[in-house]
Structure formats: C-alpha cells, structure tokens
Amino acid sequence: MAVYTEVAFAEAAALMHALDLGDLTELQGIKGG
C-alpha cells in the first residue's frame, strides 16, 4: 500500500538544495494512484 502526500514546490526545492542535487525546475503531481 502506498500513501501519496502533496509536496509544495518550495519544500521540494529546499530538499534538493540541502542534498546538493541541483535546482528543481518542475514539480508535477501524479494523476492517479
């Protein structure tokens, strides 16, 4: 079983930056699970 949680662009961008993974350019949610 999977649980999908909505993540704000700013939160995802901050995580990418903290992990030194580069800049987040786009974030798109799934259409269905």
Describe this structure in words.
This protein is mainly alpha-helical. Helix content is 30%, strand content 0%. It has one helix and no strands. It starts with 8 loop residues before the first helix and ends in a 15-residue tail after the last helix. The mean pLDDT is 91.
What is the secondary structure topology, with strand pairs?
Elements: H1 9-18
What is the compact description of this entry?
By secondary structure, this protein is an all-alpha fold. The protein has one helix at residues 9-18. The termini are close together.
Q: Which shape, going by the Cα principal axes?
A: elongated
**Number of separate helices:** 1
Strand content: under 5%
Question: How many β-strand stretches?
Answer: 0
User: What share of residues is helical?
Assistant: 25-40%
User: Could you describe the largest sheet, including whether it forms a barrel?
Assistant: none
Mean pLDDT: 91
Order of helices and strands: H
What is the CA-based Rg, rounded?
A: 11 Å
State the end-to-end CA separation: 10 Å
